[in-house]
Write a structure and sequence with these properties.
The chain has 370 residues and is α/β, with parallel strands linked by helices. It has helices spanning 2-34, 100-108, 125-129, 133-145, 161-175, 203-214, 260-270, 310-316, 333-340; strands at 55-58, 74-77, 85-89, 112-115, 196-201, 219-223, 229-230, 233-234, 249-254, 285-287, 300-303, 364-366. The chain has a ten-stranded mixed sheet with strand order 10-11-9-6-5-3-4-2-1-12, sandwiched between helices. Strands 7-8 form a two-stranded antiparallel sheet. Helix 2 links the parallel strand 3 (85-89) and strand 4 (112-115). The radius of gyration is 23 Å and the shape is globular.
Length: 370
């Protein structure tokens, strides 16, 4: 009898503990919604240095009461408080954590850096749209701001790139109030695109190109992208003049990329494959890993560095799986830096900026919202 009584008491205690935990979770969830998905500025970050000089790893919470999906870690860092922002968007099903070598190189070159998670699940954009010219812009606009929902893409305004970007900047301004993050989003929530270089890989690079088309950005960098042509068919939005001229857009890919024909077709439509210099050859400029000579300004570059199979070539030009030289530095480092330095920076980077320490895997610390 006494044994049964002890069992009953134990069960009662366990039920009470579970109920208390549920109440606490609901209270915390309501607080996250009330704070528009961000922890209050007085929350204790685990990284006491914040995003200055090293990467700050964080996740956004609910936005307007909506839990984000997906919600992988975002990465942010800065050196000076007045640098432009590099907004980086990963490939299909990839996440910012897989691009730390490139993001650290940008940090070493004086950028504020934000590797942003966004809706990039499911099929690739090229696999979704194939030869449907209107589909590309419809899907890309939906992922950009949550409008134009369709059978192909149903991202809500709260889960869009614009919404996530605003919340990420607000969070970074909280944890690093002297970092200059707030200047990228005005009080009326307008985004300062003219101070932002949009960059991305594969689907993320195509999204960066689309953002550059509809917004006047500081510049655009597209890695193994856009994959938005199929034979004579291509994304319809490319047929109209964009807000950002082709002179501020740069694209790079490897000659073995399995999606190479579709990417180079997009480059032609965008006008990126003109000769690198007067009298130069037509088409993309080709190299191993050497940066273009002084005075040359190719906007489409093809590398030939034997990074693996055609599938692997699509990713290794920019992901952390990129091939390394004997000194442990990415073989792509010189080209990465050349691309990053196509746009005006308030302070000229030093001769060693991004060349020694920057390409090493960046130290990451966890903080932010949950």
């Amino acid at each position: 009898m006494r044994h049964r009584l002890l069992i009953v008491i134990a069960l009662v205690v366990l039920v009470a503990i579970g109920a208390a935990a549920l109440v606490a979770a609901n209270v915390m969830g309501e607080q996250r919604v009330e704070d528009h998905g961000r922890r209050p500025a007085n929350a204790q970050p685990r990284n006491t240095h914040g995003p200055q000089d090293e990467f700050h790893r964080f996740r956004l919470g609910a936005i307007d009461g909506e839990r984000l999906e997906p919600n992988r870690d975002d990465f942010a860092a800065r050196t000076a408080s007045d640098g432009p922002l590099l907004l980086f968007l990963p490939a299909t099903r990839a996440k910012p954590a897989q691009y730390q070598r490139f993001l650290t190189t940008a940090l070493g070159d004086g950028y504020h850096v934000l590797g942003l998670d966004y809706w990039n699940l499911g099929k690739t954009l090229s696999g979704t749209c194939e030869a449907d010219p209107q589909c590309y812009g419809q899907v890309q606009r939906n992922r950009f701001d949550g409008t134009r929902q369709s059978e192909f893409s149903k991202v809500s305004p709260a889960g869009s790139i614009v919404s996530r970007f605003r919340d990420a900047i607000a969070h970074l301004d909280d944890v690093d109030p002297k970092g200059g993050w707030g200047r990228f989003v005005a009080a009326n929530e307008d985004i300062a695109w003219q101070d932002i270089v949009v960059a991305g890989h594969s689907q993320g690079g195509g999204e960066a190109a689309y953002i550059a088309h509809i917004r006047p950005v500081l510049g655009a960098l597209m890695f193994s992208s856009p994959v938005e042509s199929l034979g004579p068919a291509h994304a319809a939005w490319m047929d109209r003049p964009g807000r950002t001229p082709a002179s501020k857009m740069y694209a790079i890919d490897d000659v073995r990329d399995v999606f190479g024909p579709r990417i180079r077709g997009s480059w032609r439509v965008l006008g990126l494959d003109a000769p690198a210099t007067s009298g130069g050859p037509d088409g993309p400029w080709r190299t191993d890993t050497a940066a273009p000579p002084d005075g040359w300004d190719p906007h489409a570059i093809l590398t030939d560095i034997e990074v693996g199979t055609p599938d692997e070539s699509h990713s290794r030009i920019i992901k952390d799986t990129t091939p390394l030289a004997a000194d442990g530095q990415p073989r792509m480092l010189g080209l990465w830096q050349w691309l990053l330095r196509r746009f005006p920076l308030p302070v000229e980077p030093g001769p060693d900026a991004g060349a020694t320490d920057a390409p090493q895997a960046a130290p990451t610390t966890s903080s932010g919202t949950s």
